[in-house]
Amino acid sequence: MIDPISAALSRRALLATAAGALGALALPAGAFAQQGGRRILVIASNQDIPNFDPHIATGYSASMLLRNTYDSLVRVEGNPPRPVPHLAASWTVSADGLTYEFKLDPAAKFQDGSAVTAEDVVYSFHRLIRLNRGNAWMIQGVVTPEGVTAVDAGTVRFTLAKPFSAFLQVLPWAWIVSKKQVEANLGSDDGQTFLRSNLASSGAFRVRRAEAGNLYELERVANAWKPGGGNLTGAIWRIVRETATQRLQLQRGEAHIAVDLTSEDMDALRDRPGIVRVIEPEYRTFSIKLNTRHGALMDVELRKAISYATNYQAIADAAGYADLMVGPLPNGILGHDPNLAVYRTDLAKAREHLARSRSPNGGIKLTMVHVAGLDQQRRWALIMLDSLKQLNIELEIRPMNWPDMVAACRSPETFPDLFPVYQTANYGDPDNIAFAAYHSSRNGNWQNAVYNSPEVDALIEAGRSEPDEAKRIAIYRQFQEKVVADAPDIFGVLERRKLALRDNVQGFRFVPVASNAIEVAGLSLR
Questions:
Q1: CATH placement of domain 71-202
Q2: Which segment of the chain is annotated as a signal peptide (predicted)?
């Protein structure tokens, strides 16, 4: 398991700082805002941050840290979301959609004071492609090392290998590192050891404390290059496993924002003084990944039997503010087929497929994991337990911490039989979910640990490079039909995002992509 804390941090120092942090966190929100002139925002989350490396780390917790400590060429804002200038002050696009040229903001500088140059941008994209982890999937087959060049110190040119209509939308997730700082700490692993627990960044915040399983404290950088923003001097990402505890901390003023609340938590917060609820639609899917490459679920007939045996209405009821998914793509996104034939609870069909499987009488035991403390996932696991009993299949349920779940995705042999996944689109295009969740190049990652279909890969690649919208829609219709036929997932629900804030948080604007990876630079506390 990757340890995000510097190895130099001794256990004694860790315990001492944790004790001090817990004492500080017992103060009400107002005390945070005023203590010593500091204004520190506290965000309650149940997900730890497994890695600081901007070209490796994924998940909403890592995205929160990265989007506040690193910068990208463009950032995303608004609803619907749109790319806006960030490190790049402006850009031009060729008529054929293959060449993008970005002019860097001359004020941009790294936290060590050195200028952000086109060479840093080129180096960052080369490293992202070379490592082929993290968010590299977003540009795979589109951006090549030879296609990223520095025109001059302040201009970088991308010559794409093929048209990609979502190119600007993916750039907010390609973070720029300081070439000088990384190369000075290159080691034998391309700087991975260094960047696991250190920053080489230009963002408005730096990491002040990192305590795995407890909290991560960000501190605003003095004289940050980007002007404006809110009045925060810092922010704390506090690990709170139980959603009910997040809610109570919010009510008591011990947290300013809670990001993992259930529908029941949101109902309990209705009309509570000092609380602002945010319940908004976004492209956020919940599905249960099945191990298609190891164990009993390699059998597609067994996967179909389980798909028909699943109690979908119970999953929807447990979700609260949500709708059932119709196939692998989010409802309403470009190319989604609302009339797609999908699995719904039908025990007769479940038993027909079970009879054609290698376990015609059931009698097997499967394992499902879920995030420890995430009650909604626990309830979904119990629904699957009851559903599988009807097929004489036993289900062992194991709560795990998120970093351990991520580690289990590295091979089919360590991947559990059933693995629940929330996936929130980083950009509003079907490519986001299709590529991340179903392309075989993602194998070994939590979005798609094991599913591998050459036919599906070809459809995904055709869809992401086709410039004609009508043709793209036709491609994604085929993609959805093929994935449903393979039954690699239990297609669950499309959830509305549920966040809650104290009413003294100022400047929050909902953006329907990665909205739980809170951007703090523009926020204030009054």
A1: 3.90.76.10
A2: 1-33
